[in-house]
Amino acid sequence: MIVAFSVSPLGVGEDVGEYVADAVRVVRESGLPNRTDAMFTSIEGEWDEVMDVVKRAVAAVEARAPRVSLVLKADIRPGVTDGLTSKVETVERHLGA
């Protein structure tokens, strides 16, 4: 499964990068395949392990912010691994054709 999620602190002003970094740090330390872009962090693994990381990432932001917003999208596709890479490679292959 691949989960793309965004954790945003609320009530801390406009500059939220430091808070977001706390969440991304949790994801990167998890050891699961992941990518971060300007809007979302994507993480790949089994349901329980991915959701545990998301929960811990939210908790890291929640520890310093009075309120937290979470947006989450999941691609649940049993038997597929390395989807973070293969899905992008497929699109790139079509773009190059």
TrEMBL record:
**Domain (Thiamine-binding protein) ranges:** 3-92
Q: What Pfam families does this protein's entry cite?
A: Thiamine_BP
The record's InterPro entries line, in alphabetical order, gives: MTH1187/YkoF-like (IPR029756), Thiamine_BP (IPR002767), UPF0045_domain (IPR051614)
Q: Which family does it belong to?
A: Belongs to the UPF0045 family.
Would you tell me the protein name for this molecule?
Answer: MTH1187 family thiamine-binding protein
UniProt organism field = Streptomyces flavidovirens
